[in-house]
Amino acid sequence: MRISVVIALSLIANPLHCFEMPGMVWLKTQFKMVQLQANCSTDTPNGIPVFTAPDKVLGMYQLMKDVHEVFTHYGIVYWVDSGTLLGAVRHQGIIPWDDDLDICLDKKSLETVYVLDPIFQRLGYRVTKVWGIVLRIEKKDDREVFADLLLTEQRKDNIYFTPHILTRMYRLLFGDNGLYGYRDGEEIFITKDELYPLKEYKFGNFAVMGPQAPMKYLESMYGKDVLEIAYQWHAHKNDFFHKLTKVKMHLTEKDRVPAQPIGPLEERVAALAATS
Hints:
This protein is α+β, with helices and mostly antiparallel strands. It has one domain (2-275). Helix content is 36%, strand content 23%. It is built from 10 helices and 13 strands. Strand 3 and strand 4 (134-139) form a beta hairpin.
């Protein structure tokens, strides 16, 4: 059953990207990761990591800076998550081979984010949904520059990602794998004491907000050696049939240098607030 569903999805997918069915980008990414886990060795000495283009790096830094300043100005509590959090902790900026931004916020802030869409529109972005569920802030003239907004909820003393239909679909297609990972035998979480109070992390030449004690959470996501070993598994822009190689990197000091933008960042939010 699972194999037939995956084959059907592969036939539907358009490798030329002439169109995308809703949610197909997400499904293609998950399918590629399952292929990698099943077929690739744990170490590929001849693998070469694909570093993110400098112009995209500039766009990602500008987006993160703008989101941070907009959210801070309007009192929305957020924290960086996943690869963006790992970049803040390990590289003090964007991981050189990362190609998106991940941001968490409490699901109660959802409506406020929608209200802020006109502000983001004036900055050249739009607030949209991926498959009608997962929120995203993306650059209007370059959809490859985006930040996924991951909604969370607190249950007792732990903070979890808010469950949605994608969780059930993921398990149907790919088995008993957590959508965002596992910790202590259950879906991934961060404790309230690990998360709060939030603290600032250097991120390029500005600061972002993140958990005050993130290491147990990051180790649950990426492994105990997360500060010494890095893996590159996929890039969002790769098409469905692209042959990927899992690259394992023993990090050197050079590898820990964050991705560098090709130019200076603009003070856009402050200028916008001054004219509002």
